[in-house]
C-alpha cells in the first residue's frame, strides 16, 4: 500500500507581490504515509498546503491526485476529493455545540445521506479515542479538544489525506502524544498525513519521511529516524546561521518585581482571569512562564505591564514600591520595558514609520518642552535598525511593511536599548526564523547578565528550557511555584501546564 | 488586463493625489449635471471657480466663507486623527453664536475692547461645553459619539431658534426672529475696508498652522495620532486616553464656538436663524479633502468656500438653485472616499499572461530574491564578526 502515490506535486510555484512563496516544488506522498513538511517560518510550507487544499491556485506546475492531474479550485472541492485540513487557527463557532459545528462544516447532500449524524460522530469519536462529546458547547472545550473536533470533522468525510498545520504548537506534551496515537492509527488504515511543523523532535517521533523547505524550494529530504535534530536543523536554516546553544543558568535571590496574591476577574467573557498569582522576578534572572494559550497569559501580561490597572495597588511591587495602579507609561518610567504579544497593532503602529514607532516607547528621552527631538530620534532609530540587523528600506518604512520576524527584532531591540531594570517579554520568537531566534535568545541572556530581571511568557516549552533560569506554569489563571530549570524536566512542566500543580498548591495553602 | 493589488506600504503620493482626482471627477460629473440643467459647463465653472477670486471684494467674501470652515475643519481633523467621530461642529458653532450674541447685545457704542473679548470668550466656552456633553457621555457610558454629536446639532439649532425668537430677539423688531444689530464696538476689526472679512480669518490660519505643528512635531500630537491609529499601541505605550479624548474634543468645540462667535460679531453683525449654511457639516468634507492635515485644510477650506460663494453667484447669474452646493459636496465626498482606496491599493496594468512572460517574471523574482538573500547572509556574517 505504501508504495502507490496518492499525491504528487510537479514543479509547483506560487508568487505573491515581492515574494516567491514556492519555487518549483516537487513532492510525492504515498498512501498511508506520514510525511513531515519542515521549514522555518516563511519557508513556504503554509502556501504549499493551501494549494493542495484549494485555497490558493498554483501559478505554475501541476498537482496529481491518484496519478491524475487535477485542478483544485476550492476547499469544497478538496474536501469532496477526500482532503481534510486542520488549520493552526481553528474555524469553530464558540457559541454552538460540537454537533452543530460539525453539521455546519458539512456538505448538505452529505448530511442528508447520513442516517444519524450524532451517532456517526459518537462512533468515530470512540473508534479513534477522540473523546469528543457532541452536545458540549465549543467555548467550554480546551484547545486540545477543539483540535480533536476539527480532526473529527475531517474524518467524518472519509478523508484520504489529512493536512495538519503546526498542530502541536497549542498542545501540552501529554496532548501531543494523544494526537500522535490518533495520527498513527489513521495512517495504519491507509490515510496519508501531511504534517507541518518546525519542531524536530516531534517529526523524528512521528513521521516516516520529511521534506525540508527553505526559501520556497525543497532543500532536502530525509528519513527523520536516521537523522539528528541538529542535522535536520542545518537543512532548514542552511550552513551560515548560528544556532542557539545552551546557556549557563544563573540564580539570584534579590527580588525586583513581584506580584502578591494577585487576582483579577477575566477581562472578557471567554477569558480566565488570574487567581492568586504570586510571582517573583529576581535581579539577573530569566523566569519563564509556560502554558497553553488562553490560560491567563493575556491577563498576566496586561497586569504586569500596566495596560490593565484594575489590580489593587499593593498587589504588585517594584523594588518594594506598590505599582498596581500605575499605567504602562508610568511603569516604563520606573525602568520596566515590555515586548508585547501582538507585534503589529500593539508593539508597533502598523501605519507609522519605524522612527515614530521608536518614539512610541522612548517619549521620555526624546521630547523636550513638548517637542520631539527629531535628530536624536533619527540616531536612535538608525542604531536600533543597525545593531539588530532589521531588514527594511530605511527608518521611514512603515511598520506593516516589515516581515513579522524583522518587526520582532526591531521591537526587542527598541526595548533592550532602554537597558531596563525589568523586561516583560511575550512570545519572543514566535514566528521568527531560527537564525533570528537565536540572536534574540543571545540578546536576552546578555541583558540578564547585565542584571535585568526578565520574565518570558511563551508557549514554546523547549525555548523556555533553553533560556530560562527558573520556570513556572500557568493553568486557568493559576500560577505554579517557580522552580530552577535545572531541577525539573519537560515532563514535569508538561503536567503542570495541564493543571497538575493545582493539587499541590491547594495542599500548601491548607 | 487590470489587476488590483494591495500596496506593501501606503502611498504618500496618492494621499495627496486622491483629492485632486476626486475634484477632477466631481467636475466631470457636475458638467453632466449642468448640461442637464441647460447651462454651459464652462460658464458654470467660471462662476464657481474664477469669479470668487476675480476681485478684492469677492476674495474678501471667499475668506468670509472659508474662515468658519477652516476653524471647524481644523478641530474636526484632530478628532478624526484620534479616531473620534465628532460630527458636532455645527451644533458647537451655533451655540457659540448664541452665547456670543448674548454678550454682544449688552454692548453699547462706548463699550471697550473687553466686551468684544468677552463675547468671543463666551462663544468659545459655549462651544467647549457643547462638545463636553458627548465626551462625558462617551467616557462614562460608552455612548456612540457620532449619534450624540448629531443629536446635539439639532438641540443646538433649536436653542438658536428659541434664542432669536425669545430672549435675544430685538424688542423693537416686530417679532422678526433676529437680534438687534450689534454695536460697532463689539464687532471684530475688518481686514480691509472693502469687504466683510475680519481678523478672525487670520486667527483661523494661525490656529491651523499651530495645530499642524502640534500634530507632527510635538508629543501631544504624536500621542493623538497613535491613539487614533491603534488604541492597543497607545495603551501599550501608556498614553492616557482620557486626556487625549477630552483634549481634542474640547479643542474642536472651542474652535467651532469661536467660528460661531466670529460670524455673529463679524460679517453678520447680529444673531439670525441662518448663522450657518451648514459650515459644521461641510467642514467634515473640508477636513478629509485637506487630508486631515491642518495645512492642507487651509487650501481645502478655500476651495469649499469658493463652492459656497459660487452657489450664491450661480443663483444670481445662472438662475441655478442653491441646492447645487449640496450636490457638489455630496459628489465630492463620494469621489474622495472612493479615491482614497488608491492609497492602500494599486491598480496595475498586467499584460495578458503567456507562458513566456510567466517565465520572465519568475526569473526576475528569483533574481530579486537572491539579491535579498545575499544581503541577508552578509548581514549574518557581519553580525557574527561583531560577536
Automatic annotation (TrEMBL), chain A:
<dbReference type="GO" id="GO:0016887">
    <property type="term" value="F:ATP hydrolysis activity"/>
</dbReference>
<feature type="domain" description="ABC transporter">
    <location>
        <begin position="257"/>
        <end position="501"/>
    </location>
</feature>
<keyword id="KW-0067">ATP-binding</keyword>
<keyword id="KW-0762">Sugar transport</keyword>
<dbReference type="InterPro" id="IPR003439">
    <property type="entry name" value="ABC_transporter-like_ATP-bd"/>
</dbReference>
<keyword id="KW-0813">Transport</keyword>
<dbReference type="GO" id="GO:0005524">
    <property type="term" value="F:ATP binding"/>
</dbReference>
<keyword id="KW-1278">Translocase</keyword>
<keyword id="KW-0547">Nucleotide-binding</keyword>
<dbReference type="InterPro" id="IPR003593">
    <property type="entry name" value="AAA+_ATPase"/>
</dbReference>
<protein>
    <submittedName>
        <fullName>ABC transporter ATP-binding protein</fullName>
    </submittedName>
</protein>
<dbReference type="InterPro" id="IPR027417">
    <property type="entry name" value="P-loop_NTPase"/>
</dbReference>
<dbReference type="InterPro" id="IPR017871">
    <property type="entry name" value="ABC_transporter-like_CS"/>
</dbReference>
<dbReference type="InterPro" id="IPR050107">
    <property type="entry name" value="ABC_carbohydrate_import_ATPase"/>
</dbReference>
<keyword id="KW-0472">Membrane</keyword>
<keyword id="KW-0677">Repeat</keyword>
<dbReference type="GO" id="GO:0005886">
    <property type="term" value="C:plasma membrane"/>
</dbReference>
<feature type="domain" description="ABC transporter">
    <location>
        <begin position="7"/>
        <end position="240"/>
    </location>
</feature>
<dbReference type="Pfam" id="PF00005">
    <property type="entry name" value="ABC_tran"/>
</dbReference>
<keyword id="KW-1003">Cell membrane</keyword>
TrEMBL record, chain B:
<dbReference type="InterPro" id="IPR001851">
    <property type="entry name" value="ABC_transp_permease"/>
</dbReference>
<feature type="transmembrane region" description="Helical">
    <location>
        <begin position="20"/>
        <end position="39"/>
    </location>
</feature>
<feature type="transmembrane region" description="Helical">
    <location>
        <begin position="323"/>
        <end position="347"/>
    </location>
</feature>
<feature type="transmembrane region" description="Helical">
    <location>
        <begin position="197"/>
        <end position="216"/>
    </location>
</feature>
<feature type="transmembrane region" description="Helical">
    <location>
        <begin position="113"/>
        <end position="133"/>
    </location>
</feature>
<keyword id="KW-0812">Transmembrane</keyword>
<keyword id="KW-1003">Cell membrane</keyword>
<feature type="transmembrane region" description="Helical">
    <location>
        <begin position="87"/>
        <end position="107"/>
    </location>
</feature>
<protein>
    <submittedName>
        <fullName>ABC transporter permease</fullName>
    </submittedName>
</protein>
<dbReference type="GO" id="GO:0005886">
    <property type="term" value="C:plasma membrane"/>
</dbReference>
<feature type="transmembrane region" description="Helical">
    <location>
        <begin position="244"/>
        <end position="262"/>
    </location>
</feature>
<feature type="transmembrane region" description="Helical">
    <location>
        <begin position="145"/>
        <end position="164"/>
    </location>
</feature>
<keyword id="KW-0472">Membrane</keyword>
<keyword id="KW-1133">Transmembrane helix</keyword>
<dbReference type="Pfam" id="PF02653">
    <property type="entry name" value="BPD_transp_2"/>
</dbReference>
<dbReference type="GO" id="GO:0022857">
    <property type="term" value="F:transmembrane transporter activity"/>
</dbReference>
Amino acid at each position: 500500500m505504501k508504495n502507490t502515490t496518492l499525491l504528487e506535486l510537479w514543479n509547483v510555484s506560487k508568487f505573491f507581490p515581492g515574494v516567491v512563496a514556492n519555487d518549483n516544488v516537487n513532492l510525492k506522498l504515498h498512501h498511508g504515509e506520514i510525511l513531515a513538511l519542515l521549514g522555518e517560518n516563511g519557508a513556504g510550507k503554509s502556501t504549499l498546503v493551501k494549494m493542495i487544499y484549494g485555497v490558493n491556485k498554483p501559478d505554475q506546475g501541476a498537482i496529481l491526485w491518484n496519478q491524475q492531474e487535477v485542478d483544485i479550485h476550492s476547499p469544497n472541492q478538496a474536501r469532496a476529493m477526500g482532503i481534510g485540513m486542520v488549520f493552526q487557527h481553528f474555524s469553530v463557532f464558540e457559541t454552538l455545540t460540537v454537533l452543530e459545528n460539525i453539521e455546519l462544516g458539512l456538505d448538505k447532500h452529505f448530511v442528508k445521506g447520513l442516517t444519524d449524524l450524532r451517532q456517526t460522530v459518537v462512533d468515530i469519536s470512540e473508534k479513534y479515542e477522540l473523546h469528543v462529546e457532541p452536545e458540549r458547547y465549543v467555548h467550554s472545550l480546551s484547545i486540545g479538544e477543539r483540535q480533536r473536533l476539527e480532526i473529527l470533522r475531517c474524518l467524518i468525510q472519509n478523508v484520504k489525506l489529512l493536512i495538519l498545520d503546526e498542530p502541536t504548537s497549542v498542545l501540552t506534551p501529554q496532548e501531543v502524544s494523544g494526537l500522535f496515537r490518533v495520527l498513527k492509527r489513521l495512517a495504519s488504515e491507509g490515510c496519508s498525513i501531511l504534517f507541518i511543523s518546525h519542531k524536530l523532535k516531534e517529526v523524528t517521533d512521528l513521521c516516516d519521511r520529511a521534506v525540508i523547505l527553505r526559501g520556497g524550494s525543497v532543500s532536502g529530504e530525509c528519513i527523520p529516524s536516521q537523522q539528528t535534530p541538529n542535522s535536520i536543523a542545518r537543512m532548514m536554516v542552511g550552513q551560515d546561521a548560528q544556532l542557539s546553544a545552551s546557556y549557563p543558568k544563573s540564580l539570584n535571590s534579590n527580588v525586583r518585581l513581584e506580584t502578591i496574591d494577585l487576582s483579577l476577574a477575566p477581562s472578557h467573557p471567554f477569558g480566565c482571569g488570574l487567581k492568586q498569582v504570586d510571582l517573583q522576578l529576581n535581579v539577573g534572572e530569566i523566569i519563564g512562564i509556560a502554558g497553553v494559550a488562553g490560560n491567563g497569559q493575556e491577563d498576566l501580561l496586561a497586569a504586569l505591564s500596566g495596560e490593565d490597572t484594575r489590580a489593587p495597588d499593593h498587589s504588585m511591587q517594584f523594588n518594594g514600591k506598590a505599582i498596581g495602579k500605575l499605567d504602562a507609561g508610568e511603569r516604563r518610567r520606573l525602568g520596566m520595558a515590555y515586548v508585547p504579544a501582538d507585534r503589529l497593532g500593539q508593539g508597533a503602529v502598523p501605519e507609522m514609520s519605524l522612527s515614530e514607532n521608536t518614539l512610541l516607547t522612548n517619549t521620555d528621552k526624546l521630547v523636550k518642552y513638548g517637542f520631539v527631538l527629531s535628530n536624536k530620534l533619527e540616531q536612535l532609530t538608525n542604531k536600533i535598525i543597525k545593531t539588530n540587523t532589521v531588514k527594511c528600506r530605511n527608518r521611514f518604512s512603515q511598520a506593516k511593511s516589515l516581515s513579522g520576524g524583522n518587526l520582532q527584532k526591531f521591537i526587542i531591540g527598541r526595548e533592550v536599548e532602554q537597558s531596563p531594570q525589568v523586561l516583560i517579554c511575550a512570545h519572543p520568537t514566535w514566528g521568527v526564523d531560527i537564525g533570528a531566534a537565536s540572536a534574540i535568545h543571545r540578546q536576552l541572556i546578555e541583558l540578564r547578565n547585565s542584571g535585568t530581571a526578565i520574565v518570558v511568557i511563551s508557549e514554546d516549552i523547549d525555548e523556555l528550557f533553553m533560556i530560562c533560569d527558573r520556570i513556572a506554569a500557568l493553568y486557568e489563571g493559576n500560577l505554579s511555584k517557580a522552580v530552577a530549570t535545572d531541577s525539573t524536566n519537560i515532563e514535569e512542566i508538561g503536567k503542570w501546564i495541564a493543571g497538575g500543580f493545582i493539587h499541590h498548591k491547594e495542599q500548601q495553602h491548607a | 488586463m487590470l489587476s488590483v493589488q494591495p500596496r506593501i506600504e501606503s502611498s504618500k503620493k496618492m494621499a495627496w493625489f486622491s483629492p485632486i482626482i476626486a475634484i477632477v471627477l466631481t467636475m466631470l460629473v457636475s458638467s453632466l449635471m449642468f448640461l442637464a440643467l441647460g447651462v454651459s459647463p464652462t460658464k458654470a465653472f467660471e462662476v464657481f471657480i474664477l469669479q470668487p477670486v476675480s476681485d478684492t471684494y469677492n476674495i474678501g467674501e471667499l475668506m468670509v466663507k472659508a474662515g468658519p470652515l477652516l476653524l471647524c475643519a481644523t478641530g474636526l481633523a484632530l478628532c478624526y486623527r484620534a479616531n473620534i467621530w465628532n460630527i458636532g461642529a455645527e451644533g458647537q458653532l451655533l451655540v457659540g453664536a448664541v452665547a456670543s450674541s448674548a454678550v454682544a447685545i449688552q454692548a453699547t457704542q462706548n463699550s471697550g475692547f473687553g466686551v468684544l473679548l468677552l463675547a468671543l470668550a463666551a462663544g468659545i466656552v459655549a462651544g467647549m461645553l457643547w462638545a463636553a456633553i458627548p465626551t462625558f457621555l462617551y467616557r462614562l457610558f460608552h455612548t456612540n459619539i457620532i449619534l450624540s454629536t448629531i443629536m446635539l446639532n439639532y438641540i443646538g439649532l433649536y436653542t438658536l431658534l428659541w434664542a432669536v425668537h425669545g430672549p435675544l430677539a430685538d424688542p423693537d423688531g416686530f417679532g422678526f426672529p433676529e437680534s438687534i444689530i450689534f454695536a460697532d464696538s463689539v464687532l471684530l476689526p475688518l481686514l480691509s475696508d472693502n469687504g466683510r472679512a475680519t481678523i478672525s480669518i487670520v486667527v483661523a490660519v494661525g490656529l491651523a498652522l499651530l495645530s499642524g505643528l502640534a500634530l507632527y512635531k510635538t508629543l501631544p500630537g504624536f500621542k493623538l495620532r497613535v491613539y487614533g491609529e491603534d488604541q492597543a499601541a497607545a495603551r501599550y505605550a501608556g498614553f492616557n486616553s482620557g486626556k487625549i479624548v477630552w483634549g481634542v474634543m474640547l479643542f474642536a468645540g472651542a474652535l467651532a464656538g469661536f467660528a460661531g462667535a466670529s460670524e455673529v460679531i463679524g460679517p453678520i453683525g447680529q444673531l439670525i436663524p441662518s448663522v450657518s449654511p451648514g459650515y459644521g457639516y461641510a467642514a467634515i468634507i473640508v477636513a478629509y479633502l485637506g487630508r486631515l492635515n491642518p495645512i492642507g485644510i487651509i487650501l481645502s477650506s478655500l476651495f469649499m468656500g469658493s463652492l459656497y460663494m459660487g452657489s450664491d453667484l450661480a443663483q444670481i447669474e445662472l438662475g441655478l438653485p442653491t441646492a447645487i452646493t449640496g450636490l457638489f459636496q455630496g459628489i465630492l465626498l463620494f469621489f474622495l472616499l472612493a479615491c482614497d482606496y488608491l492609497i492602500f491599493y494599486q491598480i496595475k496594468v498586467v499584460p495578458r499572461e503567456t507562458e513566456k512572460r510567466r517565465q520572465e517574471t519568475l526569473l526576475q523574482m528569483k533574481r530579486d530574491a537572491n539579491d535579498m538573500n545575499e544581503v541577508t547572509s552578509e548581514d549574518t556574517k557581519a553580525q557574527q564578526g561583531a560577536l
